[in-house]
Amino acid sequence: MPNRVNYQKALDGILDALPQDGEPPRLFLHACCAPCSSYVLEYLSRYFSITLFYYNPNISPAPEYEHRVEEARRLVREMPLVHPVTVEEGRYDPQEFFAIARGLEDAPEGGERCFACYRLRLRETARIAKERGFDWFCTTLSISPLKNAQKLNEIGEETAAEFGVRWLPSDFKKREGFKRSIVLSEKYGLYRQDYCGCVYSRRELRGGVDRKFRPPFQRARRASGTRISADRSGSGDRRVPVAHKQGADRSGSGDPAGRGARCAGGTRISADRAGRRDQSPDHSAACKPFP
């Protein structure tokens, strides 16, 4: 079995070799979501001028996608960063994802379907990075403990060779990167979803209740203050006021901005306007996905 590469050390070597003077190099950074982007932007904006590229045709349904991309925009607006960061949204066509997932619908989460999804998103990122003359491309995906950093970097290197643009190696979960993303999610009140994004990850999370595909209306909040979610029977969506589930902390002061965050285990993270933390269970990085 070949030795695994330490991609954090590989990244350290690249960052140490970057010129200290002049304009920073340009990085085209694929973003999977705002919480994962938080630490990566804090870390890499010291070294690069970053365009955060939100290309995720795997996410369903459309309201869930829209909510996640808006959270990424809001994070960049509100978070102080060393070098300016811009957000660019890629096309959203879920059929691109379903095409590469065909035949892999029942593959386990974290397996071949996910690898195909990595490749879909990284190829598009690399293609645009090459066309526009970016110095490097990368993805935030490796920050997740549930993502295979070895496979992500292998695909990144293959894609770099295919398109002729440099891949920035990474394993952002190292050096407490994932834990730092939890802290930043709390600080900025980021929505932290409880499934990766595709209909198959949601089906697995729900214990197979969605085995016959139905677009999952999972926690997509509308401007009206209504949260849309699928009930466990799979019989359709229930529309309930956000405050019933997410809006009020124990003090009763609520979360008027509707920006409650979730750790990877689905625990809500919020602060009321007085700055008090919601005392929901366990804000640690040891959280696991909802049962």
Short description:
With 291 residues, the protein is an alpha/beta fold.
User: What is the CATH homologous superfamily assignment of the domain at 7-178?
Assistant: HUPs
Which class do the helix and strand fractions yield? alpha/beta
CATH topology of the domain at 7-178: Rossmann fold
Broad shape = globular
Order of secondary-structure elements = HEHEHEHHEHEHHEEEHEE
Strand content: 5-15%
Structural account:
- The chain is of the alpha/beta class and 291 residues long.
- It has a domain at 7-178: Rossmann fold, CATH 3.40.50.620.
- 36% of the residues lie in helices and 13% in strands.
- The protein is built from 9 helices and 10 strands.
- The protein has a 5-stranded parallel beta sheet, with helices on both faces. The protein has a 3-stranded antiparallel beta sheet with strand order 6-7-8. It has a two-stranded antiparallel sheet with strand order 9-10.
- The longest helix is centred in the middle third of the chain and has 20 residues, at 112-131.
- The two termini are 34 Å apart.
- Residues 209-291 have low confidence and may be disordered.
